[in-house]
């Protein structure tokens, strides 16, 4: 059985203007998903509408976590930006694939790949 923790930490770096890389540490579940969502929404509201989530240190993610990720994606799009995922653990990747979310969100092998892809393509608002 998986040991689920009820703490979640979000560390943010700003590698380029308008782009944030948020490292998520902990389990993303019904108890911690609101922390992820509010932290990411705050980043977007601060003008970093292009957001990449580094999920390498996420041990567990349930449907509440998936819902938070989808909500963050919507918020980023509404702000004219984008959301991408990096270093997605196998278990979460299976959930993204089974639900079709992997076809909506770019998934990158590493945070560096996510940052590079986010800087190579203009924000969604520039494509309108």
Report on the structure:
There is one protein chain. The protein is an alpha/beta fold and 128 residues long. It is 38% helix and 30% strand. The protein has four helices and five strands, in the order E-E-H-E-H-E-H-E-H. Strands 1-2-3-4-5 form a five-stranded mixed β-sheet, sandwiched between helices.
Radius of gyration: 13 Å
The backbone outline, from C-alpha atoms, is: globular
How would you state the average pLDDT, rounded? Answer: 90
Stretches with pLDDT under 50, minimum 5 residues: 123-128
Estimate percent helicity. 25-40%
Structural class: alpha/beta
Concise synopsis of the structure shown:
It contains 4 helices and 5 strands, in the order ββαβαβαβα. With 128 residues, the protein is α/β, with parallel strands linked by helices.
Q: What is the topology?
A:
Blueprint: E1 8-16, E2 19-28, H1 33-45, E3 50-61, H2 63-78, E4 82-86, H3 90-99, E5 107-108, H4 111-120
Parallel strand pairs: 2-3, 3-4, 4-5
Antiparallel strand pairs: 1-2
Helix pairs in contact: 1-2
